[in-house]
């Protein structure tokens, strides 16, 4: 939880500048000693993220970590996509598995659009109800139903575990 709070603080600093990271995934987490760092932030790439692919045809962002609105060219992507990605990463860390498991990224994307994630406590009963509620709120399909600010997500995580603010 502390790890995710530190990443959320990094995302908040980006959001306070009126920007969005837009492609937080496991590859965007680096370490300086034991402290996590959020890397891979390229401001000009955000608007193009939904359509961009590498020369090998892969999406710029790891498909398992993109928010539902990033899967549709007609949707607006904002800072709440970062909250979704952080919630996915936290889900994976506390349960040991991704909420949407599929044999390929396209199937995982379809699951994300059509299904709700399993309750984290069904996979790890040691997760507190407050932590589960925070994760599930961060994973809402509709961005309007997620935390509206990463600071609120961070606060919910801290309240779920007693993690102190930095």
Overall pLDDT score:
84
- Multimer state: single chain
In what order do the strands lie side by side in the largest sheet?
Answer: 1-2
Q: Ends: how far apart?
A: 13 Å
The low-confidence parts are: 44-59
Q: What overall form do the CA principal axes indicate?
A: globular
| Count of individual beta strands | 2
Number of discrete helical segments: 6
Protein topology:
Layout lengths: L1 H14 L13 E4 L2 E4 L41 H16 L9 H10 L5 H4 L5 H10 L11 H12 L5
Antiparallel strand pairs: 1-2
Helix pairs in contact: 1-2, 1-6, 2-5, 5-6
Tell me about this structure.
The chain is mainly alpha-helical. The model is unreliable at 44-59 (pLDDT under 50). The chain is built from six helices and two strands. Strands 1-2 form a two-stranded antiparallel ribbon. α1 (2-15) packs antiparallel against α6 (150-161) and α5 (129-138) packs antiparallel against α6 (150-161). The protein starts with a helix and ends in a 5-residue tail after the last helix. It has helices at 2-15, 80-95, 105-114, 120-123, 129-138, 150-161, and strands at residues 29-32, 35-38.
């Amino acid at each position: 939880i502390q790890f995710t709070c530190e990443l959320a603080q990094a995302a908040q600093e980006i959001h306070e500048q009126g920007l969005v990271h837009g492609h937080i995934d496991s590859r965007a987490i680096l370490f300086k000693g034991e402290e996590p760092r959020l890397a891979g932030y390229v401001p000009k790439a955000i608007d193009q993220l939904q359509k961009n692919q590498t020369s090998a045809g892969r999406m710029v962002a790891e498909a398992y970590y993109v928010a539902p609105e990033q899967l549709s060219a007609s949707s607006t992507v904002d800072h709440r996509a970062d909250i979704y990605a952080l919630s996915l990463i936290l889900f994976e860390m506390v349960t040991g598995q991704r909420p949407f498991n599929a044999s390929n990224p396209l199937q995982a994307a379809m699951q994300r659009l059509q299904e709700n994630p399993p309750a984290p406590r069904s996979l790890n009963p040691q997760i507190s109800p407050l932590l589960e509620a925070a994760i599930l709120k961060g994973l809402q399909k509709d961005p309007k139903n997620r935390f509206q600010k990463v600071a609120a997500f961070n606060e919910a995580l801290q309240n779920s575990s007693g993690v102190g603010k930095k």
